[in-house]
Write a structure and sequence with these properties.
There is one protein chain. With 362 residues, the protein is an alpha/beta fold. It has 10 helices and 15 strands. Among the domains are: 60-178, 3-Layer(aba) Sandwich (Rossmann fold); 259-361, GMP Synthetase, Chain A, domain 3, CATH 3.30.300.30. The chain has helices spanning 13-17, 77-89, 108-116, 125-132, 137-140, 159-169, 221-229, 269-277, 313-326, 352-361; strands spanning 36-40, 48-52, 67-70, 93-95, 120-123, 149-152, 176-178, 202-206, 236-244, 250-255, 259-262, 265-268, 282-292, 296-305, 335-338. A hairpin with a 3-residue loop joins strand 13 and strand 14. Helix 4 crosses helix 6 (159-169).
Amino acid sequence: RQTPWNADTNVWWDDVMKNSSEECEPEWVDAEDPLFILYTSGSTVAGYLLYTALTFKYVFDYHPDDVYWCTADIGWITGHSYITYGPLANGATSVLFEGVPVYPHVGRFWEIIEKYSVSKFYTAPTAIRLLMKYGQEPVRKFNLGSLKILGTVGEPINPEAWLWYYNVVGEKRCPVLDTFWQTETGGHVITPLPAATPLKPGSAVFKQPWPAIMRTVYGNHERFENTYFKKFPGYYVTGDGCRRDKDGYYWITGRIDDMLNVSGHLLSTAEVESALTEHPVVAEAAVVSRPHAVKGECLYCFVTLKNGREFSHSLAEELKKQVREKIGPIATPDFIQNAPALPKTRSAEICAAGQSYHILKR
């Protein structure tokens, strides 16, 4: 496959490394200096920027002889904290991967683990569910004896995927770390560790600050306070529902706001609806979640067209393309349905709950 090359921006790795020193003098900075500013999707149409930091060493129990591999996109928060800054700050040996887990064959992940003797493996439940459907045979073709820890990130992992990951990939000997955190937290805040205080179902909140927490919403500190600290004064509100079972395990039950988790990426329903209504024939739009066997959730969109316009397959594809171009491939709707009218509240706001009920009944 031909890769586009731009001499102004691209360089050959070997050319750079052959004259590079193995020593790197650290740059001393203040503890409160921001590490990076990252865009994340919010519950309003516009996204926002934020400061954050990182954690790495202790969650993955990293040692100098380990080989670590995180399969996330580097541009995502997991890629920032656990591909770039976390491993580099610890001098970790890391595998960098570009591509998809099923090309050129469905055993691509397992082949790489064997080839580079990966000991700490970190991926998303979506990838696990995708590979599950190909069964155990592609996994058994490779020696995964180097694995010590398996991690998951980005979305809740369902029991079936967890068991397959533990039994088949980890061969019943590798602990599975189901890590809970957010772009805003900068690093892990809940991992499978023993706990002692019972917690009834409710919202996930944190009572104490931690080093990696975001410091502000860039250019709008008032929004930072209102979004994360107003609902429960003094506590950071994650926006997720949470319960703790009788065995002491925490279950993240999903978003309690207008956010959808698609393949481990949070998407704002308002952003998608805005992209749809920017099309000249769309009068109104409502976006809801639909269960998906691989992605966890997918986008089911209802659109009401302007008078005199007709819905068609070509229009649906055109709308999908528009959302993809305006937000990104991860936001491409799986379904777009014509709705002559959308249910509304007394204040004339679109009621997505009614549409969600319609989808679940179907």
